[in-house]
């Protein structure tokens, strides 16, 4: 258990959440501002590890749903957060014992912390994916047996929808169209689960990870140590996981295309050491695949992040611009995401990429 | 009170419902088949007038929602109807005392009769518009103060949505997108109301009207009397209402265009007596305006129907084809629909027609 009682911790967590967002998931900035204001008022989010709650605890995900660009501009209000909780408890017919993030990468790292701060309900140090993904059915919750619905989607005008979908692919479709009708931004109470399910189906210790990623970057910057060395050292300290700087270069071309609520794009970078080296990152909300001189070196669900090469600040897909000097980071996904049942749902082919998943460590060994 | 115990009555009702559908509302044929099968098995829908139920009775609309072309092809199942009722009673927390059609014109004339037949719940001799309209917020229920939600939308695969919208325009948007995600065909339980509201806000005696319209056409045909004379005589027998044959001609041009789930079109007819006479009917799901040689002679919310000139069978917009010989009928809407508060919601400008509503009787007097 730990208490988030410092504004700096929330800033670090938001930075870490952008890195784990792998370019997508929405900018957590608005949520971060909200939680910072709570901490200044002495309302501190309490974080529990999953093994600190009983098996029969009632755990719920609270999330913002919508186009990332809209989430960023949308201020969440305390009233709306209280309404979600009240509605959810009435709908499920029981008190919420703990909150959990559906997706730690990006904006949805902050929603449970925001509600946790104002309600006093603890937030679990875990989430449903350990990164960002564009669809509900791609979470480990969905993949390993905890359905997203029955759930609630509401906006802050007073429209409330409850959804009971036959599967999470349908839940995704319904949430998406309802959110569209609500003006591209809504709030969801989804994935009702037991404490036991949270222990089994969630990716563990991911709030800790956002905090420590953000802190590694900040402290290295403050102490004038090498930011990327500190970051890679930290990430490699996680058991069985591999982090590597994949490329050091300058963005020479970047395309952005928003259609059907998705952000499609491609960033092309040229090497700073050797200008004949070319690195291409394909974007579909998230950074999906990184190719060095035409050869794949990291691919979804392994994580790709792009960071400003001076400040070490992680960047979202929308932030990338021509001429930026960046480093590309590759990081192995949590082992849960690499199992065959996960790859069936969130492997490269689910994004239209005609390649098999290969772990970053194998790709780099053969590069 | 009357009992619908003859297959012929249901056939007549369906015919009358197509006429009141003014080209839209979906073909009631599939629902008609279902109710005919019930009647053959001795399960008869019971029709009550609104003044036969207590003021505090709980009245609910059951409707098919979706693209008319899909409704036509979609067989409703007894299981699905039972599920709607069970879900609705659980959701509202009380037994349904009576069913009411939201829209008597077209397919939704039959859904309450179908559920009434299998459940024994009486159906009110009334509906929410007395014709067909494309949007939820255009019903007299909505206009005069009975909201469509809280309500339920479900499909027959097991997906269930509850909706609580801030207004009926939003309810319309949410129903439309949810139905789209469900494959363009869903079932709704909407407009929870009291017996008192049904007495005040519904258009009265419209089931009787469908039956008697269909019967007037059929019996004239059987007795070799003039079908249109019989029909006009019947319609004019309604207090304060005017029916007239607007045109007798041949379809010389017809356009159909389906976009955003709407059917847009235009039928152009040439006179059979005088081939220089031209009649144009503009279609937007329903027949909206009829112009004779460029002059408007009937306009929404007054009713325009197009009938086969030999059989007297009313036609939907999708049925119109080049070369068909038809008669165009104009009929004044129920007085409730002509009040200023109604015209604000379902007058010509709400369909993008830059004209004021004028009653058919004035338009014809000045023609």
Automatic annotation (TrEMBL), chains A, B:
Superkingdom: Bacteria
Full protein name: DUF917 domain-containing protein
Domain S-Me-THD-like C-terminal: 167-360
InterPro entries: S-Me-THD-like_C, S-Me-THD_C_sf, S-Me-THD_N, S-Me-THD_N_sf
All copies of domain S-Me-THD N-terminal, residue ranges: 8-164
